[in-house]
Amino acid sequence: MIVSRTRQPETVVSDWLSKDTWSNAEEALAAGLVDEIAEPTPLRRVVECAPGSGPEVPGPTEQELLFQTWLTAFGPVAVGDKAAFGRELRMGFVKKVIHG
Question: Is the pTM above the cut of 0.90?
Answer without folding.
Answer: no
